[in-house]
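Tokens as discussed.
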């Protein structure tokens, strides 16, 4: 498959209702927030995890990944074992030294890009005990930020059971466990992404890979994307709402990304009323007088 030839910048709008889109483990797993503005945050790592999980489902045959669509960073993975696979497949010795070692790293690096979709897309640092080099990925994403400040509601919850006999004795058989959960009543988030054809030429990121990325992000011709397959008590109602890609005619690009992103305007219809659904917002895209060489794709 040929690598992509054009640069893309894209915008993903997604929302959460009565849930926690991305808890901070250093803050009791409360929703991430910008303390100066009150806007909610979702990390790029969180979004990439959901994309990886989607690919694991979409590209599985009889429980095994299709060739070229394995995932490098997945639950319970031991990364050195993934590197061992490359050396074994190419019949190379990971203990070699000098020029021979440098050549082997180049070979295993290429094998890892061909085998693992997330390395081909996001890149990876593979300079571990078993060295497969480093890869700069063509697809990068920034933190997502909510359009408006969010309110985090802390709720008390009760489990009608205890974990140990000792807890049961202390409660005289009442057997209740109290806990707390924080939710965002509603938040609309904006994430920006960038795709470099120059780096795609190095990793082999192709048009077929790009189409799979759009599917994962929730394009309208697909199955709803990553949020549809990431349900939990904390993330029961999350959905992709808009997906807009700006395609550049050239590899280097025809306009700055920030100027293209500024064409998307999001405003609450009634500023006096707190938003509780996507319909409370008006989203407009200025497609007039686009810079030469820019094509807009409204994928969702």
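Sequence:
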């Amino acid at each position: 498959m040929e690598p992509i030839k054009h640069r893309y910048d894209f915008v993903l709008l997604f929302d959460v209702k009565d849930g926690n889109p991305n808890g901070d483990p250093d803050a009791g797993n409360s929703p991430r927030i910008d303390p100066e503005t009150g806007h909610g945050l979702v990390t790029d790592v969180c979004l990439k995890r959901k994309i990886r999980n989607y690919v694991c489902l979409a590209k599985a045959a009889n429980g095994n990944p299709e060739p070229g669509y394995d995932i490098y960073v997945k639950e319970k993975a031991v990364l050195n074992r993934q590197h061992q696979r490359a050396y074994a497949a190419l019949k190379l010795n990971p203990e070699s030294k000098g020029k021979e070692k440098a050549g082997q790293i180049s070979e295993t690096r290429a094998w890892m890009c061909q085998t693992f979709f997330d390395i081909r897309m996001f890149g990876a640092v593979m300079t571990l005990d078993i060295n497969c080099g480093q890869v700069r990925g063509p697809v990068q994403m920034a933190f997502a930020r909510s359009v408006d400040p969010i309110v985090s509601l802390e709720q008390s919850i009760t489990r009608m059971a205890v974990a140990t006999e000792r807890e049961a004795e202390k409660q005289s058989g009442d057997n209740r466990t109290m806990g707390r959960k924080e939710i965002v009543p509603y938040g609309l988030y904006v994430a920006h992404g960038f795709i470099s054809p120059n780096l795609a030429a190095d990793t082999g990121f192709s048009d077929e890979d790009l189409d799979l990325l759009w599917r994962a992000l929730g394009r309208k011709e697909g199955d709803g994307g990553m949020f549809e397959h990431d349900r939990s008590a904390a993330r029961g109602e999350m959905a992709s709402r808009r997906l807009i890609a700006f395609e550049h005619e050239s590899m280097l690009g025809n306009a700055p990304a920030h100027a293209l992103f500024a064409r998307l305007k999001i405003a609450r219809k009634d500023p006096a009323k707190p938003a509780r659904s996507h319909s409370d917002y008006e989203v407009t895209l200025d497609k007039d007088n686009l810079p030469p060489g820019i094509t807009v794709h409204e994928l969702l």
